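Box 3.1. Reading complex inputs
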Amino acid sequence: MAKHHIEAVVNGDAVEFLCETEETLLDVLRDTLHLTGSKEGCASGDCGACSVMLDGRLVCACLVLGCEVGGRHVETIEGMAKGETLHPLQQRFLEHAALQCGICTPGFLVAGKALLERTLSPTETEVRYWLAGNLCRCTGYDKIVSAVMDTAAAMRKG
Amino acid sequence: MRYEAPESLEGAVALLAAATGDSRVLAGGTDLLVQMRTDIVDPELIVDIKRIPETRAITEEKGGWRIGAAVTGAELKEHPRLTHVWPGVVEAANLIGSTQVQGRATLGGNLCNGSPAADSVPALIAAGAVATLAGPQGTRDLPVEDVMLGPRRLALRKGEIVVSFLLPPRPKGSSDAYLRFIPRTEMDIAVVGAGVSLTVDGAGSITAARVSLGAVAARVLLVAEAAQALIGSRLDRPAQERLEAAARAACRPIDDKRGTTEFRIEVAGVLARRAALIALDRARTS
């Protein structure tokens, strides 16, 4: 059958795209809209490398169909920095060396930012549980958790 | 593969009733999309029910709570009242998957995926939840324990969907709890799950109880004998032992890499006892 014609808002911009039913939001972002910051790790919702915000809710883009997002707002890692200015969490990931190969990093950043939008006073336990759906096979998690905690502390001070 | 997102129950039922090939209801998609990806299912029709208002609402009804089948775990947790009235249901739904999965996974999907290890199902059964179904012949109510017949097998008829769940009114001194065993801290599938809901009177005696066990049989069990062990007791040590024995006697588990038969039976008793103690503690302070 004919492809679906979808209109949505991605990182604040109105977008239109065509997709097949079986294409995921991650397929659409990467292959059609050429927003390749979101990564495909497992394609089964286990690794979090494709984390995006859908109508303000953290989700795995691999577990959403492209045709589901008609009229909805999607935010990806590409919308996190404002021009040349990194989001505070991105800056702290650099300072804490909270990444190595980088495949998991966009997902951690999007997920970490979502937590900081809910609370600027998370405990370390809360950070670890919140990020339990994001897998990293390089650094281990301590530097990532430190970066999130440190960003929260800095943002509390304003 | 056809995708439809009707905005009414009638529209969804008509699409599913008219489907000639394999059709699937899409709620959160956290099971369906993985099954499509791995070629376990290849539906000709997908009916997304999230644009139907009845599947997305949480409302008070007849002194109880009606929860739409497409309400997510995250939405349950954020609800200002449900966490206090039904903490066991909310904690069970919130054990399913990661934060990302919580943003999508639904109560209706967890039930209709048809897994005996579904975390929210024992909690709903213990709660006495009734599923409201819509189909070509109209709507009907079915207790949640009667919806799933076995692994991947449901009592739903052609064209029927689960619309919502009705949780009954809560007498004073009531609460619930859900516990599961997994070999790690987070992000795993229950080896055993236990849900307990109970009511305690002013003197500290249990006047009503329901006990449900997951992942210990081909379907999630409502264990009447375990509830009987609680009712009339103050959950002292002899009552705890009767509860454990009744829970274990009901188990007919498989033996697989995640847990042996003996282990699941043993743990079912332990979790039933611990869940009852948590529910009792909550009920006394509710």
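In summary: The first helix of chain B runs from residue 9 to 18.
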